[in-house]
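During the reporting period, we have paired protein sequences with backbone structure tokens. One record among many follows, to show the layout:
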Amino acid sequence: MADNYDISRNPSDLPKSKGITNEDIFSTEIDEEVYERYSFGALLPEQWIRKHGTTDTLKNITDNHCSTFYDRAMELMEKRINYEEALVNVNKCLLLKPFHIPFYEIRSEIYLNLCDFQSSIISLQKSILYTQVTTSNSRLSRNEQQSISKPVTPANREDRLTNDKIAFLRYVSGVTLFDQKLYLDALGIVANGSNIFITLPFQIYSILCLTALNKIEEASTLVTQMIEQYSQNADLLIIRARLYYKDKDKVFIEELCTFFSH
């Protein structure tokens, strides 16, 4: 017998013959026969129903939206216009798929085009972190005990390339701040980079920043350490000689000031 009432009505208004049982205990309870008359599909939005009767999964919906945002971001990047909107679309992709590594690399490139070096570096660092986590989890799932007992393997080629990108971005960021005469900020970035990436350009710019900040003694100490490391580099000897004479001029001026102050 078909029902002649709407299930959306308050069940307490229905007569007992329409499915309400034991009104004294649970006055709003509907018995199982009423539930069985309504299929679960009838409660879903019509646009979620496919032709073959299957419903879209959350993964399909996420993939479709993510693909739309990704295509829009790549279109804007190829045209080299409106990087801000491209960044918004990539961030939407990351909200849907936060562990998809290529999205972080794309976002880093967008930040680089916006001259936001620090954000570009952070995006690349996140890509390395999530890559290591994903690799570690897959290794543990294959053989947990053996993987735990083994030492951590060195970074693969992709990680090394990403580290090279980070080194380049740190260097460019430090040079940009130095050109703007923000010597202390430049020193913080370049010195941090020189601790991670032991390369001559980082150390040279550390010396330049220290000299600009009138930290001659610290700069001379750093040059001396570099000469021990790069003994065949004659330019370092010239730099140390110039710092030596600059320091002597500083001492001479201080002595004159002291003399005339008495």
Residues 180-262 form one domain. The first helix runs from residue 32 to 36. Residues 147-154 have pLDDT under 50 and may be disordered. The chain has eleven helices and no strands.
